[in-house]
Amino acid sequence: MKKKLTVKEYIYVASMLFGLFFGAGNLIFPTAVGQLAGRNMWSAILGLLITGVGLPLLGVAALGLSRSDGLFSLSSKVNRPYAYFFTCALYLTIGPFFAIPRCATVSFTVGLEQILPQNGNMKLYLLLFTLAFFIAALLFSLRPGKILTWVGKILNPFFLLFLGILVVVTLVSPAAVPISSVEPMGGYIQQPFLTGFLEGYNTMDALASLAFGIIVVQVIRELGVDEPGAVARNTAKAGIFSCLFMGLIYVAVTAMSAKSRGVLPAAENGGVALAQISQTFLGRIGLLIIAVTVTLACLKTAVGLITSCSETFTGLFPKGPAYRVWAVIFTLVSLIFANFGLSAIIDYAVPVLMFLYPLAIVLILLEIFLLPGITIAGVGGFLFAASGVIYAYTVGETAGHITLFLSLTAFAASFVWLLRARSFNKVALKTDVDSKLTSSRDLGIEPGDEGITLSRLAPIGKARIKGITVEAKSMDELIDENTPVEVLRVDGYNVLVKRKEQTDIHA
Q: CB neighbours of 438 closer than 8 A, spacing ≥ 6?
């Protein structure tokens, strides 16, 4: 059985994941960080990379390790009401409330707004642009066909090529000043790391990773890797490649925007700053090119988010509206929010993200370290670790950096060890499962056989069937530990089970 992807397949999966992640926020927020942080850029970018790159990587890894069928399945390990709440809240945030409207407003801010007469009615222009933008997005969402694949293959290389030219021209331009000479502004004066850390929240990539990670898992399985531990390892590796590339872009864009302060003042937001940098260093043609590419990139992202949100809500509420109705609803809501403007959307998103991100971080870390269930000890351990890092920063930034670096180093070393050591199989729920078998059917397990769960099935865990410990999956509900179960069917490495119906002896 295939255990790992080829180099070509790794590149394919990593590029696909990069395309899913890379949207409007991945450009405007690093640009804003560079302009405002100035000579404190390196501390700020470190914080940005943790929340903008590190957390998305952990999110993808968590879904790979859990073998969950999606965010709802993953969050169901807490309980079912929480799963509904968190899944709905996350998808609404990365969908019609913030991320989708931001796609339209960034396109307008970076492109059309810079070309139109500045004394015109910008609110009317924004309304007309967003109306056209979302009509196109809705049409593609209702019948996407191959548009996402086509745009991804053509647009991403073109956009990255242009962005690379812009970065290089800005960095080598005589007008650009040394980063060390640029004075920091706002929160970047006293607390550049923490300010950059919080700014990374705004990319929403950690939240998106919980929605996109399952796509990566499915693609890897389609490429022939079926064994659960191998799927988890390959998912993590593809996530590392993608996130490292994204981090490289973050650093380049941040450095570019910091050096541009020699000829440009700090802009209202990252979208305006990016447009001004393009026009200043590449002329009006540069502004036109980036306007087109950013608009198309944001349109692709908007189509993907509308499709993802509509499919998710259709699955969560099977008796509710159909897919097309959800798509129309989300598009209309996005249109309304988009007309508040980019700066307003960013401001409104902050309190929501401050609420959702801690929930996402805890879920990700617990899923990685505490498979197959969530314990009080794990929650306490995470809270103590986080409190220690926060306290270190209250002592001083140097102490905070050292504490955070040691913590991340320990985590990275542990994660690499898990990937390479036999103990990874235990974390991945393979305790006592014969890894030499190609299928659980080889164990003689058949539909109708009975057993008992050894761990919570949420939906995947361990069960003992016919005296053999196997990986079991619940069909439709959470099943607690030490619960009698009955085998429905054997599917590859998964033994699909249901709760055994108990007979009332007094009946």
A: 1
Tens digit of each residue's pLDDT (9 = 90 or more) over 397-427: 676 677 667 666 666 665 555 555 444 444 4
Q: Which CATH class is domain 7-374?
A: mainly alpha
DSSP notation for 325-379 = HHHHHHHHHHHHHHTT-HHHHHHHHHHHHHHHHHHHHHHHHHHHHSTT---HHHH
Cβ pair 275, 69 in contact under 8 A: no
Q: Which of 306, 297, 341 lies closest to 324 in space, CA to CA?
A: 306
* pTM of the entire predicted model: 0.66
Radius of gyration of the chain (CA): 24
What is the H or E stretch that residue 429 is in?
Answer: none
Task: Look up residue 262 and give its two tokens.
Answer: 């020699």
Distance CA 151, CA 486 (A): 47
Mean pLDDT of the chain: 75
- Domain residues of the chain, as ranges? 7-374, 440-499
Question: Tell me: the pLDDT tens digits for 81-120?
Answer: 777 887 888 888 878 888 888 888 888 887 777 777 767 6
- Name which of 191, 476, 205 is nearest 361 in CA terms: 205
Q: What are φ and ψ of residue 453, in 5° steps?
A: -75, 140
CATH number attached to the domain at 440-499: 2.40.50.140
Q: Which of 327, 266, 275 is nearest to 302 (CA)?
A: 327
Lowest-pLDDT choice from 193-197, 248-252, 372-376: 372-376
The C-alpha atoms of residue 147 and residue 172 are separated, in whole angstroms, by 37
Distance of CA 452 to the CA centre of its chain: 36
Q: Cβ neighbours of residue 239 under 8 Å, at least 6 residues apart? A: 14, 17, 56, 57, 60, 61, 64, 213, 216
Residue whose pair of structure tokens reads 């810079």 in the numeric block:
114
CA-CA distance, 220 to 149, in Å (whole number)? 17
How far CA 475 is from CA of 420, 465, 502, in Å, comes to 31, 16, 18
| Closest CA relative to residue 365, chosen from 298, 290, 415, 439 | 415
Instruction: Please tell me whether the peptide bond between 372 and the residue prior to it is cis, using omega within 30 degrees of 0.
Output: yes
Quote the distance between the C-alpha of residue 341 and its chain's center: 24
Measure the CA–CA gap between 325 and 329, rounded to whole angstroms. 6
Among candidate residues 276, 318, 237, the one with its CA nearest the CA of residue 229: 237
Q: Are strands 460-465 and 494-499 parallel, antiparallel or unpaired?
A: unpaired
Pairing of strands 494-499, 484-491: antiparallel
d(CA 494, CA 126): 51
Q: What is the pLDDT of residues 265-299, one digit of tens each?
A: 888 778 788 888 888 888 878 778 778 778 877 88
